[in-house]
What does this fold into?
Amino acid sequence: MTLLILQSLASGVVTGCVYALIALSLVIVYKSTDVINFAGGEIVMIGGYLGMFALLSLGVPYVLIFVISAVVTFALGAVFDRVVLHKVLGRAVPGQSILVAMVIATVGLSYVLKGSVRVVPYTEEVRRLPPLLTGEPVFIGPVVLQQQDIAIVVVAVLVMLAIWAFFSLTLTGKALRATSQNPRAAALVGIPVRRMRMTVWGIASALSAIAGILLAPKLLMTPDMGVIVILAFAAAIIGGFASLPGCILGGILLGVIQNLVGIYVGSNAISVAPFVVIMLILALRPQGLLGGRVAAKKV
Amino acid sequence: MSEPLFALRGVSVRFGGLHALQNFSMEVADGSIHALIGPNGAGKSTVFNCVSRFYTPVAGDIVFEGRSLLAMPPHGIAAAGIARTFQNIELCRSLTVLENVLVGMSPRIPGYFPFTLGFGRRRAERDAVKEADALLERTGLAPLRDAPAESLDFGNQKRLDLARALAIKPRLLLLDEPAAGLRNREIAALDALLVSLAREQRITIVLVEHVMRLVMAVADRITVLNFGQKIAEGTGAEVRDNPKVIEAYLGQGHHA
Amino acid sequence: MYGSPSLVRFLPLLVLIAIALVLPGRLPQYYLYLGNVIMMYAVLAIGLDILLGWAGQFAFAHIAFFGIGVYGTALMQLRLDLPFIVAMPAAALLAGLVGFLIAIPATRLRAVYLALATFAFAEGAQWVFNAWESMTKGPDGLRLPRPDIFGYEMGSDPKAFPVMAILLALMLAATMFLTTSKFGRAMCAIRDSEHVAAASGIDVRFTKVIAFAISAIYAGVAGGMYTLFQSFANPEVFGFGQIVLVLSMIVVGGLGTIPGVLLGVAILGLLPEVMRTTMRNLLVWQELVYGIILILAMMFMPRGLWGLARPRRKQARS
It folds into this structure.
């Protein structure tokens, strides 16, 4: 029995890392722009398809497909922000939260992405992205993991380190943090707020794309893959929707919870587990495990 | 010595490590105009927000007509007879001027069940509208009755904020920087209005204000706050010459 | 937004009912079906608009209450032998009760969390509809009973059409009363400024909870309407796609305005059908077109179509 639990923990960590990446993408968009990106899942899907196309049809080496996919989706996200969201923001209407319009715009994006992928003849055939590493499974103590799983964790950790370094150590990263904390002050000190927003969207999209390539070998590639985003939301909420460590913690916890639910409750309960988790956390501790205290609003 | 109509006793408010108010006490006599002044960030709006029950003090009590306000939820304050305006002019921007006043009048309009047909509701609404129109006359907003609040210019928005507060027929009126951004002519009109409200309609007024001219002209009593603590209290003359007050303002002139 | 709605306002409703009584003999069944669909969506959309457009609460549990309305109405007839005329209001009230209970914890949450929590609830409800097979027959679908009112049997589009119109008219009348009432003003006040609302003596929490419950009742009624002309109920109908559709209808049409919402319902409700008949082999483009419409609408029509069609309210100068 303990072996089963350990195995669940291990594979939970693996999937959790991917959830964490997607959660991170949602959180950095939210923290910078207050927008819930309902297209998050579709960007994951696009990233996966781009990677698969590059690998299978263009013959690009596996390692590079991450780069290609990330770059293309970076541009996609940045353009979406610059063209669509910027315009929507400028049309605030009193008596109506601008967030409604922004969220619907992201929903629109998700349908555009899904729809575009569906009409492209390339995707009529259902394909699978081969894993990054194949070969003999690896034993860590009593637990068995595919080489692919190790690869996933390694890539995810590298990406998260890169993100952390970017936000903490580079000038652009610090400027981005400043913008998300106080856009008006940031604008006053000369930070180009609009460009920062675009960058945030770009980075978030690139993160999702990488997650998509990591995730794709485990799933069947279909345009509907985007529903995975609910798991990322759950992970982000567990972590407090506020920080990188929160996303990591939330992702891993969610991955583990999913496996444990599958074992102890039943496999058909797995799909509802994230929703129950979301409701429980928001009912009992809305700021999540690592979110700070909610500040009193100045009147 | 009669009981003050309204008093804060030993009120302390903390936001995390920040002491917004420390052991603050103030008494306001019935029918008087009391001013609360102090440099920016001194904690003046915090006092109002405690009375509105948006914040809860960690210590002390707030008493009105002999009852503690801290036992009430935020929506009970209006029903108790206390109205306020907001420093940032919070209005219902998508509603018209008339509708804003009707919102302000809510506790005095009977009945909540919207599906109550019959003459009760029709008459109640008609009376409410009539009264609201009268109030708009008195505050000079009548021609703007059906304009959306967001389309009003600054001065009229302030007037609307005040009209909304008056709609409740308050016993105590809290005004948060009513003169901010007003031109001299408008300040004089505000002066006259405040005096009329206090003397003729017996509304007790507490105002947070920076415009010293207005404060010196209308206030019966002034309390001075700095860094969340009371540093002086008295009549206009007493406060003006108080060295601690002068120091707090770092030499800003405040001659009437 | 005050006073009682004048009797003149009710005339269009009577016209609606009159038309609905006359049409079934004259239009082919397909158009009557479309009409039924639109009328049901109208009630559903207005219900969501009350919560989102009037009270300003960004909550997505609506579709779960719709499901309760559908399954509740059907199962009360099938299992409890209640006639439709009792089952539907009962199911709607049940939906309202669930909405009330959900709202109590939910209204403590800030906008983002409220949206996510209610969305999670809706998805959880859909899972329940799927999993509770003994009651709902799960993914296989529940065969809906043929409802009748005092012997007038519905269950087909022409027969159901007038009843749908009457129900829609009733709900529109209720909406007019609601929005011109003190409660309607209270919802708007909360939407614009919770501080002003609280300082004006409005119990913000209570108003939000009641708005939730009322919105849920509308969804429940829409659910009952669904059973009037559909023969199967399937959990697929109560998913994320549906809530997005209803949300789009009200935002594209005109959030917070009744005519706007109706306009949005008509356009986005008919769109799939229009596309189906005109772009027969391009069905797969549906999602793409839909997404583009949403994006363009948000970029260029923040007040919705109704906001474009109608000039800004007269702006008086002081």
Notes: Confidence is low (pLDDT under 50) at residues 314-318 of chain C.
